[in-house]
Design brief:
The structure holds two protein chains of two kinds. Chain A is of the alpha/beta class. Chain A has eight helices and ten strands. Chain A has two domains: 101 residues, no CATH class; 126 residues, no CATH class. Chain A has a four-stranded mixed β-sheet with strand order 4-2-5-10. In chain A, strands 6-9-7-8 form a four-stranded mixed β-sheet. Chain A has a two-stranded parallel sheet with strand order 1-3. Chain B has a single domain, classed as Alpha-Beta Barrel (fumarase), CATH 3.20.130. Chain B contains six helices and seven strands, in the order βαβαβαβαβαββα. Classes of the chains: A alpha/beta, B alpha/beta. Chains A and B meet through helix 3 of A and helix 5, strand 7 and helix 6 of B.
């Protein structure tokens, strides 16, 4: 059965989701932050983590964005193959949602129209939009406004098969060490391993939207996530990069088959304001 | 050590600050980030005066989100300071007393901090809602067309920052991280 969906529904939902994502974190993010306060050994680190908790409270109560960098809107649309859109162009409808959310929600407009000429588009459009066709007749929308303090510290490594798992671990630690205080630690680290150059980057981005309390379903990847979280926290970077035992809140790794000649690894770093809003319509 | 300081501040006060001090600033801050720094540099190259007097003042690397009605400013946390490294030594040599941002600085900036008896503070990145409440007034005073990147004059009260790099050449990012690093 074909289900018809008016693209105006996309616009209305995405508008609300942009506003929601920059003012409220998901419950799992709040949980790991609470845990971090208990785990942190540095007194200054604990003080910073408590400030971050207070900041979340103020953001939600007063409707002030958690962070002034309300990001570039990354939107994932997982569209059931039995959905038929009507009422307009899907891409325009998504951008209209972003426009309304950022303009009416008092969010910062951080997008420039041309990367070299750099004129602000004044409404935070366009979004970075990814489509996936999936079975069914529903649409899963994920809106993840991404700040660039941490985005700028993300990296791709085109490793060779001989580099193996040790190479992957080294790549992740290199990216996090170099990010240091710039990426607003404690961070969430999204990692993509395998696929191609762009596939691993996209996996790393999407891994950031996974619940931070849920590990990979693949046993050896779950083990790698746990090991890397521990190793990252031994780096000493700490909250705000001012020293401490909590440098990352979670490491989420996704994998995909790859070529006999390659081992691509992408590390997408997100700060503690790991924002995403998810709806199924 | 916890301190309360009024800004703008004297060179003597700046020199007394030590990496690791937790400082509450009250008074005037100017905001400027990437685009405003580029314009100020271009103005200086043309031999023009800057739209603000940087002497004894602290520049806050920050571009706020828009203010809701009845509020002076929106979310207002620090941005990554290293993007301003190219422009900073010149401003410090002109008498700027300090900067507030987040993240590491270049050797050229750290040298200029020592040479001038200045200070580099970090504010907590991603605490924009909390920091917003310590800003009592915000007025755009130059480059209004840059939107969030315009230069603003802020009146702040007990604005919390941490001394990262002091005039003696200490750098908290290096020392504190070593203290908590566990060798594998």
């Amino acid at each position: 059965m074909i289900r018809t969906v008016d693209v105006k529904e996309l616009t209305a939902n995405i508008k609300e989701m942009c506003i929601e994502a920059v003012h409220f974190l998901t419950p799992d993010m709040k949980e790991v932050l609470e845990m971090a306060v208990k785990k942190e050994e540095s007194p200054l680190g604990r003080q910073i983590l408590c400030q971050l908790e207070e900041n979340l409270e103020i953001a939600g109560n007063e409707m002030i964005p958690i962070c002034q960098d309300t990001g570039m809107a990354v939107v994932f649309l997982e569209v059931g193959q039995d959905v038929h859109f009507e009422g307009g162009n899907v891409e325009e409808a998504v951008n209209e949602g972003v426009r309304q959310g950022y303009v009416e929600g008092f969010l910062r407009k951080s997008v420039v129209n041309d990367p070299l000429i750099r004129e602000n588009t004044k409404d935070n459009t366009p979004a970075v939009l990814y489509y996936e066709i999936v079975p069914g007749d529903q649409i899963k929308i994920t809106v993840a406004p991404k700040g660039f303090g941490s985005e700028n510290m993300s990296k791709i490594f085109m490793l060779k098969p001989a580099d193996g798992i040790e190479g992957v671990k080294k790549a992740i630690l290199t990216a996090v060490s170099e990010a240091g205080p710039n990426a607003c630690p404690p961070m969430v680290v999204g990692v993509g391993i395998g696929g191609t150059f762009e596939k691993c980057a996209l996996m790393a981005k999407k891994a950031l939207t996974r619940n931070v309390n849920q590990h990979s379903k693949i046993p050896h990847i779950k083990k790698l996530e746990e090991e890397m979280l521990e190793k990252i926290n031994h780096l000493g970077i700490g909250p705000g990069g001012l020293g401490g035992s909590v440098t990352a809140l979670a490491v989420n790794i996704d994998t995909y088959p790859t070529h006999i000649a390659g081992l691509p690894v992408a590390v997408n770093i997100c700060c503690h304001v790991n924002r995403h809003s998810v709806r199924i319509i | 050590m916890e301190r309360h300081i009024t800004v703008p501040m004297s060179r003597e006060e700046a020199k007394n600050l030590k990496a690791g001090d937790y400082v509450y600033l009250s008074g005037i801050l100017y905001t400027a980030r990437d685009a405003a720094h580029k314009r100020m540099e271009e103005a200086l190259e043309r031999g023009e005066k800057l739209p603000i007097s940087v002497k004894d003042h602290v520049i806050y690397y920050m571009g706020p989100s828009p203010a809701r009605q009845g509020r002076p400013i929106g979310s207002a946390g620090p941005t990554t300071a290293s993007r301003m490294d190219k422009y900073t030594p010149r401003l410090l040599d002109m008498g700027m007393i300090g900067m507030i941002g987040k993240g590491k600085r270049s050797k050229e900036v750290l040298d200029a901090v020592v040479r001038n008896g200045a200070v580099y503070f970090a504010a907590v990145g991603g605490a924009g809602a909390l920091l917003s409440q310590r800003i009592k007034k915000a007025v755009v005073i130059a480059y209004e067309d840059l939107g969030t990147e315009a230069i603003r004059k802020l009146e702040v009260e007990n604005f919390p920052v941490i001394v990262v790099a002091d005039a003696q050449g200490n750098n908290l990012y290096d020392t504190a991280v070593k203290q908590y690093r566990r060798e594998e």
